[in-house]
C-alpha cells in the first residue's frame, strides 16, 4: 500500500497495515529525543498518532521534560566537580540544539494544535528547568554580569525574548535587576572596607561608583528595553546626591553638580518615572536649597541657583521659577539687594575677563520677581557705563546680548535705556575715530590730549542726578588753553556732522583729566575734574596771573553758582596749586611754581568734600525714591481693582504684600488720591468701594 507522509511524499510499503502500540510510540519518542535514533519512518509514526491525536502532544512534552532534566543534571554535576564553563555559552549551545529538536518534533504534533503554542510550551520546559534553576543561579549571575561577555549575553537574552516573551519578562527581567542591585552594592561598599577617606567624600565617591556601574551595564544590557532593571540603582543615585549635600557645604555641592551634571542628565533623568523626577526635584530644589539658604552666603546660594538653572532648566522648570520667587523674597526680606547687585556686577566682570558668558544671565530671572526693580536697575545702569569705558567692541556686543536677556527682569523703558546707553558708547567710539582721522588730515594731532575718551550721552537716558549743570562750549567766542580749544572743536565737529540739528551739553563736573607740569621742586601730577583742568590751564607760560574778576567771569564757569566757583578756587589754594594775593590795589591769582612735587594728587574728591553739589544730588535721589515707592503702590492698586471693586481696608491689606518696603497708611492714601485725581480709579461714595475706570 502507499503511505503518504505529512509533506505528500509517497512511501511504498508491502505491509498492508502498520499498527503500533502506545509503548512502541513512547519508545520511539524517547529514543528520538534522547538519542536521536529512529526505529520507524516518521510517516508511520504520524499515521499512528492520527488514530489517537490526544496522546501526541503529551507524549512529546513528557519526553522533552525528561530530556531537559538530564541536561540540568549534567550541568549540576559539572558544577560539583568544579568543571569550569561559561553558562552563557552553555545555554546558547544547549538552546541551539534544543531548537533543532523542537523543530523536528513539530512534525508530529496534532494538526489541530497551534504550532506557536507548542513551541512556547517546549521552550518553557528548558527555560524553567535549566535557565532558572536555583542551583545554577549564582554561577549564571556571575557569567551574566561579566562585562567581557557582552556580545554573548545580549545574544542569549535576545533569543530568550524571542522564543518565550512571557518567561523573559516574568523571570529574566527580575533576575537581571537582582543581579544589578547585588553587584552595584558590592562595588560601592568597597570604599568603607579598603579606603579610609573623609566622611564627607564618601557619598561623592559612592555616587561615582554607581555612575560608573550604571554606564557599564547600560551598555552591557543594551538589548533590554525595559529600563526598570536600573530603577533601584537610580534611586540610590538620587539618595547619594542628597547625601552629598548633607555632608558638604554649598561650594562643594556646586562643584559636584558641575562635574556630574552630564551623568545626571544622561544616565539618570531620561530613565526616571514621573514620581522619581518629582523625588529628585524635591531633593535638589526643596531640601538642598532650603538647607543652604539658612546657612550659606548669598553668593554661594547664587552659584547654586546658577548651576541648577544652567543644567536642569528644562527638567525642573516650574521648581526653578518657584526658587527664583523665593530667592527674590529672601533677598528683599534680608535687605540683600545691594549685595545681589554687587555679586551680579562681579560675575559680569569675571565673565568678560574669562570670556565665559553663559552663567550670569541666570541671575536676571531673580530680579524679575522684585516689586521694585529701580534700585537694582540704577546700580546696574551705573556699572554698565563703567564696564563700557574700555572701548572694547567685544564687551559692547556682550552687553547688548545681556540686555536681550534682561527683558524679563526690567520693563521696556528700562531696557531701552540700557540699549541706548550701549549705543551712546558705541557711537562715541565711532565719533572718536572720526575725530582722530580728521585731526590727522589737518595735521593738528599735537594739539589734542595724549589719551582721551569722551562719551556723548543721549538726553534723559542716563537719568543721573549729577547731570544737572550743563555748559555749552561751541558758543564760546574766545577760548584759552589746549583742553578748552579741543572741547570746543569737538563740539563744533559734532554739530556739523549732525547738520547743526544737535549740540553738546558738557557736564564739566563729571569725568577726570590728568595734568602734569614742572615746578622748581619737581613734577606735579594732578587728577582733576574737567572743570578744574580748564581753570588750571589758564595759567600757561604766557600768563603770570589772572584777576579774581577774570576768574569769576570765565565763560565755562557761567553755569555754576558763585559759591561753587569760590570752592573750586579754594581747593587749588588749600593744596598749594594756586596762590591768591588780596592787596588794596589788586586781587590776583597766580600759579605756585615752587610747590613740592607729587604723584597724582586727587583734587576731585577734595572738591566734592566741600561742594554743595553732592547734597543737592542726594536730595534729588530721595525725591526719586519717594516717587518710585508711590509708583509701586499705584501698580499694586491697579492690579487688585482691575477685576473687582474693593473697599479701603481690603485694598490696603492686599497692597501690603509689597516686598521692598513697608507700606504705611500715608503713602497708600497719597497713591489712592493721585490715581483718583488722574481719573484712573473712582470712589463710590455710597458703597465706599474703589473701582477701575474703563474708557
TrEMBL record:
Residues 366-570 form the Cullin family profile domain. PROSITE patterns: CULLIN_2 (PS50069). InterPro entries: Cullin_homology, Cullin_homology_sf. This is Cullin family profile domain-containing protein. It comes from viral metagenome.
